[in-house]
Amino acid sequence: MDTAGKVIKCKAAVAWEPNKPLVIEDIEVAPPQANEVRIKIVATGVCHTDLYHLFEGMHKDGFPAVLGHEGAGIVESVGPGVSEFQPGDRVIPLFISQCRECRFCKSPKTNQCEKGWAADHYDVMALADSRFTCKGKKVLQFMGTSTFSEYTVMNQIAVAKIDPAAPLDKVCLLGCGVCTGFGAAVNTAKVEPGSTCAVFGLGAVGLAAVMGCKFAGAKRIFAVDTNPEKAEKARVFGATDFVNPKDYNKPISKVLAEMTNGGVDYSLECVGNVDVMRSALESCMKGWGVSVVVGWTDKHDFSARPIQLIAGRTWKGTLFGGFKSKDGVPQMVKAYMERKVKLDEFITHNMTLTQVNEAIELMKRGGWYISRLVLSA
């Protein structure tokens, strides 16, 4: 049946209100408007940022919404003015736009874009406009993507066309977590060959950061986490040492300083915890150490003593690992297809959309990556 130009009714996991289970609903997805594409989502990962919005951020204006921002799918139809995409294209939705026209897109110094939800809607994490309705109510598109739906509508500046041979149930992970962690090491920290690194937090983003450090040629990579069960997985991605802060009666920064003759060259905080951010900074070598804030949070202030920066350390943040989205994601897909980066090893569970709440609970309990939710055959 030809669905182009028609409203599509499909299944989606709707977050009607914060701190409550998602509800599988029948929603209506409007046809794409000017410069938009409608995408049939094939697979999606569950990322901690979904949980952050649901259980931590809980902004009153951010609901109801369809969560999910780490998916891959097939273009079903396109709206007027779309020339880059056509039905049948394999694509990855992007939570960061790349319009190629604004001052940010034209600058090599950043991957941010003045268009899209991320420009000024960090609190609500969605634009006011939406192509979703359910039970007569507008439903927001979380981070502009909403991959916990069988169909979604995206502006073409927030969609990446990828190799048609790439397995969508694997490369969906490049929509957020893997690019974020890998790029934090390679693009933002700019890890150098022969250096020492410490990665704090070994969820998907942290493991991807470990992989990025390894890819960049780091000599020694400390994987830091309070869950000893993550040690083996960290080594799969390139960690040389596993350090559990619970095993010591002193700050982890002092432990790492003793193990590295003063501190690591690069540290990456992949938890989204302000106390861990400070620990990561303090674990860096004075004079040249670089610490990158990778974990997503916007709930608390963080702090450090001025001397820690005066002494020569650099403290910086990263969004989506510094990748310009439409350019970087296809490059990462290519790297996966050439076996230069890992994706299969991140996958711990394969589940269906109807099991989304179970997937969320697994992630809450274990902090592991829960992928993939299979939305369509």
TrEMBL record:
Coiled coil: none
Keyword Nucleus listed: no
InterPro entries: ADH-like_C (IPR013149), ADH-like_N (IPR013154), ADH_Zn_CS (IPR002328), ER (IPR020843), GroES-like_sf (IPR011032), NAD(P)-bd_dom_sf (IPR036291)
Cellular component terms per the entry's GO annotation: cytosol
Example GO biological process: formaldehyde catabolic process
All copies of domain Enoyl reductase (ER), residue ranges: 17-375
Gene3D superfamilies: Medium-chain alcohol dehydrogenases, catalytic domain, NAD(P)-binding Rossmann-like Domain
Keywords in alphabetical order: Metal-binding, NAD, Oxidoreductase, Zinc
Keyword Oxidoreductase on entry: yes
A GO term, aspect molecular function: S-(hydroxymethyl)glutathione dehydrogenase [NAD(P)+] activity
Cofactor(s) needed: Zn(2+)
Family: Belongs to the zinc-containing alcohol dehydrogenase family.
UniProt protein name: Enoyl reductase (ER) domain-containing protein
Species this chain originates from: Oryzias sinensis
